[in-house]
Amino acid sequence: MTIASGSIQYQLGTAPVTGYGISYSAAERDSKLSGPVAEVVFDDSGKVDSQSLRAGLAETDFEKSEDNI
Fold it and tell me: Is the dihedral of CA 40, 45, 46, 51 positive or negative?
């Protein structure tokens, strides 16, 4: 799998601690977010696990709605 390199917009810090700001075109972004990378970034399986855990909790007066989580 080839990953687009993007364009470096800024660089800061000095070794061993550095940071980069990288921009990507829409096509490069879409390419990066396809396949197995999307599974990690969007964590759909983690969301499903979290929803199933919350569904199994006992309802009490202290229950929080999903809007507040």
Answer: positive
Tell me phi and psi for residue 28, to 5 degrees.
-65, -40
φ, ψ for residue 16, nearest 5 deg: -90, 5
pLDDT in tens, 38-63: 777 777 777 767 777 776 666 665 55
Q: Which residue has the tokens 């990288």?
A: 22
**Chain-centre distance of CA 21, in angstroms?**
17
| Claim: this prediction has a pTM higher than 0.90 | no
Task: Tokens for 65, please give them.
Answer: 């709605």
Please say if the pLDDT value at position 3 is more than 70.
no
**Token digits for 43?**
């964590």
**Preceding amide of 16 cis, omega within 30:** yes
